[in-house]
Amino acid sequence: MGVAAQIFSLPSLTLAATVESSLVIKFFGDSFSRVFNLNTHLGIVAVIFFANYAFALLFWGLVYPKLFSPLRHLHGPRNFISMAHRSLIVSDRPSGDLFLDLIKKYPDQEILNLSAFDYQVLVTKPRMLADLLVHKPYDFAKPPKISGLLRHVLGDGLIMVEGDQHKFLRKNTMPAFTFRHIKNLYHMMWTKSVIMTGALEEALETGEGRDTGIIDLSNWTSRVTLDIIGVAGMGREFNTLKKAEDPLLGIYEQLLEPAPEKLAFAMSSLLLGLPFVRLLPWKMNTLFKYLTTTLSDVCMPMLQEKKDAIVNSKDDHFDVLSLLIKSGNFTDPQLRDQLLTFLAAGHETTSSALSWACYLLSKHPEYQDKLREEIRQAVPDDMEIDKSTDLAGILEPLPYLNGIMNETLRLYPTVPLTMRQAVRDSNLAGQAIPKGVTVVLSLWQMNRAPD
Predict the structure, then answer these.
(1) How many domains does the chain have?
(2) Region class of 243: left (phi > 0), else alpha (psi between -120 and 50), else beta
(3) What's the whole-model pTM score?
(4) C-alpha dihedral, 156 to 159 to 160 to 163, nearest 10°
(5) Which of 53, 209, 252, 275 is the S-S candidate for 215 at Cβ 3.0 to 4.6 Å?
(6) Residue 403 lies in a domain
């Protein structure tokens, strides 16, 4: 932050106004009161504070963006309210569409200035994305307001930690994500998928869809992915596909339910910061604290059960949690945080992708028919499938299956918008990015860009 920005920051202005008020009251109180027709010292203080903040508003709105901002040479809307913040508030169209409009207006720009006040830019080209996430990932971190909210749901796991902590976790978890291990999970995932199709048929015949032929698919995709991540992440059978209710699933459903008040709470926390929102007399604060605390409390018995099984030599399952426990490098709170990350990020992201894939197939029945035919040819009804079956070798080469999944992730990325903040002076594809600048990345926009 430059000298001018520091001088006109809110803390500096408040301090200056306080000092000015004291001096005016002490030396010029009577004269000031007569000129402005003020009867109390409080009125003098109010006038001085108002004058300081009004001057600052003019400085930030008119002078700073054109003369002092390190991003002043960049093209972009430079709105009073950042485009990134507007994208979180506007609800009549997908948030990524606002950024699509921008790149159509500035087609040749790789980076755009989004705000007149914040240090906030949008990257629009793949080579900048590569620098941001691959070549220089530790030059940028999640903004504090975002991480401050998400860590209550995800814990300080692989997704949330930064720097050396992230390097350590990545090194210690990578063995669980080798192709050999993923390949060994195919049979389990196939089995869970078969169970889900049976549950869907039953729901259509005798359950929620018996009268209308309509069911809430998102509920079932959340169940099947939680069952899969339970086995893959911690070697535990949740069996939510067969249970009417499950405490863990219920917590996630309440946390992620897109109710208007919950969305307002999330947006307020992202824009203003969770510590500020917690000061408000809002019942959502109590509910959020209850759900996140309960989620953490549910995980601890699972963790202890897993540790006991390992100590008693009753656990030979190769999963992420077992690997972390056996490494001996993690405390119980750290293991709990990893578990929170695997459960939340591991099942909700996949559930979202599966739901969107089903949506797209329902909108394009011709591809649904081609995909069904491709899979039936590769895996006939009379084919015996067991743990020795090379499902990876059968499914990986299928063009329609892979094409449809890739297209789903392109059109509906699990994380359509994310941000990173420069923790040191850096650059993206040669463009200087000063420390403190927030870099906005819209995968929705980038994946749908005309070029």
Answers:
(1) 3
(2) beta
(3) 0.81
(4) 110
(5) 209
(6) no
